[in-house]
Write a structure and sequence with these properties.
0% helix; 7-stranded mixed β-sheet
Length: 119
């Protein structure tokens, strides 16, 4: 079973930047998707953005378009989330995910990393 380990969370003022990184423990099926989700306090876990494991063009939630960038490094087996122009509404626990549900598999989650954006 794959393990996903996130790092890079922390506290930052609005307008600042953070970079999150997710390290996968095994080779990942190229047809699966990898992505980042955020769960704000008392809210559902929502998709931030995703990309095919093999790479390509990421897809983003409207709320983060133009501010966040997902990158997949196959050689390092990592998935990064560069977050710029952070807003207080971006606060939450960010989870790395490997999503194979669309090809009949399951979804794997990392442990999450806290991002706190203050005004």
């Amino acid at each position: 079973q794959v393990q996903l380990v996130e790092s890079g969370g922390g506290s930052v003022q609005a307008g600042g930047s953070l970079k999150l990184s997710c390290k996968a423990s095994t080779v990942i099926n190229s047809s699966c998707k990898m992505g980042w989700y955020v769960q704000a306090p008392g809210k559902e876990r929502d998709l931030v953005g995703s990309i095919f494991s093999r790479g390509g063009t990421p897809t983003y939630a409207d709320s983060v378009k133009g501010r966040f960038t997902i990158s997949r490094d196959i050689a390092k087996n990592t998935l990064d989330l560069q977050m710029n122009s952070l807003k207080t509404d971006d606060t939450g626990v960010y989870y790395c995910a490997l999503d194979c549900t669309w090809i009949g598999g399951i979804r794997y989650w990392g442990q999450g990393t806290q991002v706190t954006v203050s005004s």
